[in-house]
Design a protein that fits this description.
The structure is a homodimer of 211-residue chains.
Chain A (H helix, E strand, L loop, with lengths): L1 E6 L3 H12 L4 E7 L2 H10 L4 E5 L7 H8 L5 E5 L4 H10 L3 E4 L4 H12 L11 H8 L6 H4 L3 H11 L5 H8 L3 H15 L4 H10 L7
Parallel strand pairs in A: 1-2, 1-3, 3-4, 4-5
Helix pairs in contact in A: 2-3, 5-6, 8-10, 8-11, 9-10
Chain B binds a DNA duplex (30 and 30 nucleotides) through helix 8 and helix 10.
DNA sequence: AGGGAAATAGGCCGCTCGACCTATAGTAAA
DNA sequence: TTTACTATAGGTCGAGCGGCCTATTTCCCT
């Protein structure tokens, strides 16, 4: 069982990731922190194997947390803005991994396992994918697995850019009301709240062909 | 936005490169110098991220400029005569990159981004191409080319699943009204009509990193 | 000096979206 | 057969979205 600590000032995100990771058998969330300071404290008190740290935090940024911990615990930086500049900064600060917040959950899980096993995901000698593949579990995306066939159809259309209720209804030969019902169901299962996020998910889940 | 300073005694070349770089959304030319002395002056006064320096200049050669700046700013040497001898001299003088004047513009842009991000293009451990590929701008679609830097930022966020006006505003440190203005502009330029389609486009255009 | 583009901010309005709820028919499993 | 789940359809309602305007400031280019 790998113990994970999560730090993100966006509480909803931290909670979400926590929930998602909790659903993975070999991972356990030891705690979540809403800021850098809190994380540093928790890291001392809790027996953790890997840290997931948001870069953008008001009190202590991800970089500063890395400085404070001085590599006592392996850490993966998770950020909204995964650009090359932040990446190299993170690497220099001692991060063992650098991931975007849009990273698919299985990849995040794989990254946690890899780092916990001593891998360094920031070294450029090997492709990130090559390493992660070794730690990939054939874990289905929790939400996507529970989607019904019809919901998947709808989600696929969204991922293709069909966004208007009326058009979705026509494509599926159903009433606009039914479209909205299916959408609501999708939102709940995937823990999202609108079509835009649904479209992003559709693509991320690989539902959209021809890409 | 990466600020670039250009130095070349061939004013036409300096101007040309300046024009060309100005057309690239994430790069901005902070100024052009027609000689080494002038560049050193500008480097002090201007807030620049990367220097592009011609080797052959009448007053101060590229090497001498590097000596004077002593690595205070990362610099890429650009020369008519890219031979091994000059290369090793440049490396010893502290250049972070060494390119021929016949380098294609996209590669030059990639090199600027790479150096700005802290890469050293002169180390022989990795192929230059391997590094540059990571900084290559995704070839942009006709519509996307007309997007401004700010619009692109917004679009990228959408592609990451950030859909609420309020949250987009917070992420960009602007008013929700301005977010809607940018969105309207994006819709028009890409011939789309809502955020969902915008998110799909963002991903299709490769604006969303790490996938 | 003057013109244009970009980024910022705001107002107004109609309509759609998403949340919550009920309801029926069909199907598959218990 | 009863119990679930799915697909279908409908209603209401408030908040948010997109369309269309104006306006200011700051640049850059001419």
């Amino acid at each position: 069982m790998i113990e994970v600590l999560i730090a993100d000032d966006h509480t909803l995100f931290a909670e979400g990731v926590s929930q998602a990771l909790a659903a993975i058998p070999d991972l356990h969330v030891a705690g979540t922190a809403s800021g850098g300071m809190e994380l540093v404290e928790m890291a001392k008190k809790t027996r953790a194997d890997v840290l997931l740290i948001d870069l953008e935090m008001p009190d202590l940024s991800g970089f500063e947390v890395l400085e404070k911990l001085k590599g006592s615990l392996p850490a993966i930086i998770v950020t909204m803005h995964a650009d090359a500049h932040r990446r190299s900064q993170a690497v220099e600060a001692g991060a063992r991994g650098f991931l975007s917040k849009s990273t698919p959950l299985p990849e995040l899980a794989a990254a946690v396992r890899a780092v916990s096993a001593g891998e360094n995901l920031t070294s450029l000698t090997t492709t990130l994918r090559e390493i992660l593949d070794n730690y990939m579990e054939p874990t289905l995306d929790p939400g996507a697995a529970s989607l019904t066939a019809r919901e998947r159809e709808l989600l696929t259309l969204l991922g293709e850019g069909v966004s208007a209720t009326e058009e979705l209804a026509e494509r599926l030969y159903i009433s606009p009301k039914t479209v909205k019902n299916h959408l609501a169901s999708i939102y709940e299962k995937l823990s999202i709240s609108d079509r835009t996020q649904a479209a992003v998910e559709a693509i991320r889940l690989g539902l959209v062909p021809n890409r």
